[in-house]
Amino acid sequence: MFTKDITTRFGEIETPFYYYNLDVLRDTLQACQNAAQKYGYHVHYAMKANFNPKVLQTIQSYGFGADCVSGNEVKAAIEYGFNKDKVVFAGVGKSDKEINLALDAGIFCFNVESVQELLVINDLAGAKGQKANVAIRINPNVDAHTHHFITTGLEENKFGVNVWQLPDVADTLRNCKNLNLLGIHFHIGSQITDLETFKTLCTRVNELSEWFEQKGFNIKVLNVGGGFGVNYYSPDHDNIADFEAYFKVFSDFLNVKPNQEVHFELGRALVAQSASLIARVLYVKNGLKKNFLILDAGMTELIRPMLYQAYHQIENISRLSVAGSQLSDKAIIYDVVGPICESTDCFRKDVELPESFRGDLIAVRTAGAYGEVMASHYNLRDQVQSVYSE
Ligand code: LLP
Fold it and tell me: Which residues bind pyridoxal 5'-phosphate (predicted)?
């Protein structure tokens, strides 16, 4: 919740900017770490969700591993102090240059997405006289029941190896002397809030790890990916994702042998609640059918509403009462839009807000995941700035 004090501080800062509440971040990391430790689980932070330097430093300081999807993410993970033995490299299109970089860095494991990629990593590792650890990303054909743009585990998605291709994978692994099969990897989608979906995933992982064991492979790592969603309707501090409930599903439904490790790749659930996009009202346009609040931030700073029709809570934080709640003596319905020359540049239609004026500060909440990292320079916009709670 924002207070009058903080909005006074915001008044002196040029907008738009991302505001990071590091207390929320730390409390989230602590909650995840406590729950993971209870079950003996390993968590790699999915860096794609937010690679802001301060966020990375904070996450690294809690001892999390890093899940990377580009050579630059691998490089950044090492630079920011993540232990290389806890760095995994996933992604459907790793270039030779990126694979070489990760081999040189001595990362823990490549999450491999095709037979052809296995062959390439085998060759590149061989050329360096190395043996690369790999996990096979399997497409389990499980529907994540999330927005179709962020579903990844269906046959129709480009990710991973389909189940019918596994015999070919097994033959390839036997012939690739420079590869060491560590485990199997899954990631079925993002912003999954129905824990039943993860139960279904567990059933598929159980079947597939059994399949590999029966073929004579020793599966040491069961990497079940990320995807755990957050509550975008309630952005406050006390609404940190329920990691305990999430991990419990795996503890109850995943078959884990004594020598096996369970790995997770959480992005959104670790960082989403820790940031808000703070913008200013540039203009208020009252029309016959619509009232518009035109902000100085738009799809170039936070594209989620425009790309996935994602809901983010919007608050006018210049009109806070002393208790921090919105003043509601005169509420008006606005379409809250950005300045970009695209009709889709709208954060949300029909938002009820206190009557708002030019210069008011608007917070778009729960913007810590896939916010700043997906910003662009479209319309030759300035790079968005970041401000921290301390
Ligand atoms: N592991 C893999 C292989 C992934 O592809 C992803 C996310 C994650 C882990 C982390 O997922 P998370 O725990 O954050 O759900 N830009 C979209 C989300 C794209 C997710 C891409 N992959 C959004 O703003 O909703």
Answer: 227, 265-268, 370
Query: Is 268 touching ligand 1 by the criterion CB < 6 Å?
Result: yes
Quick check: 265 and 13 in contact, CB under 8 A? no
- Report the predicted TM-score, pTM, of the whole model to 2 decimal places: 0.95
| Of 310, 296, 314, 304, nearest in space to 350 by CA | 314
ipTM exceeding 0.90? yes
Quote the CA–CA distance of 63 and 109 in Å, as a whole number.
Answer: 17
Q: What CATH code is carried by the domain that includes residue 143?
A: 3.20.20.10
Cβ atoms within 10 A of the Cβ of 307, count?
15
* Whether residue 279 sits in one domain with residue 243: no
49 lines ligand 1 (CB under 6 A): yes
Residue 260 tokens read as 């096996």
In terms of residue numbers, what domain contains 296? 4-17+273-388
Chain position carrying tokens 């590869």: 179
pLDDT single digits (tens) 266-319? 999 999 999 999 999 999 999 888 999 999 999 999 999 999 999 999 999 999
Cis bond before residue 16 (omega within 30° of 0)? yes
Last residue within a domain, chosen from 228, 247, 271: 271
8 Å CB contact between 312 and 366 = yes
For atom 20 of ligand 1, the residue with the nearest CA is 190
Cα angle, residue 361 at apex, residues 269 and 351 outer, rounded to 5°:
70
For the cut 90, the answer to whether the pLDDT of residue 4 exceeds it is no
State the pairing for strand pair 291-295/346-354.
unpaired
